[in-house]
Amino acid sequence: QVLLVFAEEDEQSNGFRWACDKAGFRCNIARTPQSALECFLDKHHDIIIIDHRHSRYFDAEALCRSIRTTKASENTVIICVVQRHTDREESSILPLISAGFTRRYVENSSRMACYNELIQLEFGQVQAQFKLRACNSLFTALEKSQEAIEITSEDHVIQYVNPAFETMMGYQIGELIEKELTEVPINEKKADFLDTINSCIKIGKEWQGMYYAKKKNGDSIQQNVKILPVIGQGGKIRHYVSISRLCNDNNKVEKTCECIQAESQTDTQTCRHKDMRKGSLDVRSTTSRGSDGISQRRRSSMARVHSMTIEAPITKVINIINAAQESSPMPVAEALDRALEILRTTELYSPQLGTKDEDPHTSDLVGGLMTDGLRRLSGNEYILSAKQTHQVAGSLSSPISLNDIPPRITQAMENEEQWDFDIFELEAATHKRPLVYLGLKIFARFGICEFLNCSESTLRSWLQVIEANYHSSNSYHNSTHSADVLHATAYFLSKERVKQTLDPIDEVAALIAATVHDVDHPGRTNSFLCNAGSELAILYNDTAVLESHHAALAFQLTTRDGKCNIFKNMERNEYRTLRQVIIDMVLATEMTKHFEHVNKFVNSINKPLAALEENGNNGDGESIKTVLRSPENRILIKRMLIKCADISNPCRPREQCIEWAGRISEEYFAQTDEERRQGLPVVMPVFDRNTCSIPKSQLSFIDYFIIDMFDAWDAFADLPNLMEHLNNNIKYWKGLDGRNLRVLRPPP
């Protein structure tokens, strides 16, 4: 099947359409990126041909990236039609490859040229993709095989093991991949036996026999093993495939090494040497490493198995389940198998996208907020913060006292204890300096100066310094956002269930963390900084880049000058405790751990509290206190509190929700613009200011990140007003989307 994406009908599109008819290919035509994406998700074409000649109609590279974000495009060949230029130097194809194109086609409307291109694609890239699809079937067979299968490189580096191997040996696949086969303790006589196996497989012969293997827990098991060399590139052995099953009489471990050795030396009995079949599967999805010299140095044998002894808690759980399976009836054993499959994944708390994977808004939000970007070696560098001069206390004008706040600002803060408090009114009254004023009032209400043993003037200077290091040029991540998160945090801290749970030091940490949680934010996502090779991304190893920077800079700004050091009078141990809580809360705002935090909160707090209520223990203060006051659960509650405060915009009154939606959209639009200017990967292609549907993006964000989290937080803290606002805002965005409007507000 072929999809042609041409904004207008011309000779080139007609040429490809004629070629499809001649070749007998089914053909669809799309005129816009949106219709192209919808058609592809419906038909799953093998070839997509996109017109890149006229940028005024649509961005072909952005469309290609959007298609590549879908799972359906994994085996799709995407062709880029470019203009023919005879008067200038040939341009590089790398930007097209980076965008996700398979190859380019220099415009040639000749029908036969179009036909030849399609035929070459059919017998080249398309046929190769069919083979890759077939590999999925082969690996499915391996995964379901009851025999333990292990594939290694020519240098005996483990590249694949199937679930049966994990069950037999007690390891997880992550513990084995890229590891060399390690020796188990053997005696001198057994070494001769291992040399016999090596001499067999190294000349391309199959070996079959029995030997003892050592499981991870130290138990010795007797296996019937077949080892097959796989001939690959250059006619050399590139892989070894080992197929094992437990011997029927596995209890007779007293069987001597000499007996096994004697059996292995007779070709016509246990050790059957077979000619290597030339047509053996070349496992190209696992690449070989090393040279002949390295191979000789390693001397690792296929017959020498694993003796690793480090055992993580999750491994102990898996081993317990494995042991339980042995004496369980078949339905129970199969259920435990499914549980093991889930436990073996590295993303235990991240849900599968499922059908949402086909929604480009959700895919882009997940890709932009929950990944650290596409690793890219490039000359592009985005310099941020490492060499910037940050505002310090001495360079700022002295802030006024809480008692001297102008009447308009005082009036704007009158209802700051209520959820419907309007932060934008305060922003206007303070000329975009709301954090100092709101911070002074909230910190006074919670007695922060008394707890820290610092003066009000020190607190004022600190708030001034922190606010000065927020970027007022950012449409969203500025000091108004910080003040908004501070207000939400204070509101949550006033809820009865939260007050039951947290200590004064937790409240102080939460308010400080909210204040500093985005300080010096550049208005770009972590993915952007990683792709751009920024100094911060390099400093923090592409991991929680911004959140690490916010926490580190907050303490640098605070402690470098005594005039704003709110911690200077604290006792050392109390300061260290406070510092750790602040850092943990700021790092919790990083979105890659979103589902981990939410799921832990639900399972450790929501469900136990619900169980107590169902069992009639609602009035049992001690049982509830045990759940709420454990150190581990208090950490989860503090993380959940700041996470909800950080992204509470959809739960604000409608006008505030709309304003925040416009601001974050503008910031993402600006990032997309800059990514295109710099030639960087566009991590959120749907945030194109010319085509983006803001209602769709808001609905995707709410559906994927907000609803479950606030359902859990509401169940804990009792927030009916927030949930009412959330439901009203969902109806509002759905109303706009139902009218196919892409803007913030309906037309007059």
TrEMBL record:
Biased composition (Polar residues): 283-294
Cofactor annotation: a divalent metal cation
Keyword vocabulary terms for this entry: cAMP, Hydrolase, Metal-binding, Phosphoprotein
Active site per the UniProt annotation: H477
The keyword Magnesium is annotated on this UniProt entry: no
EC number: 3.1.4.-
Stretches the record annotates as Disordered: 279-304
Protein family per UniProt: Belongs to the cyclic nucleotide phosphodiesterase family. PDE8 subfamily.
Subunit composition and interactions: Interacts with RAF1. The interaction promotes RAF1 activity.
Name of the featured protein: Phosphodiesterase
Organism: Regulus satrapa
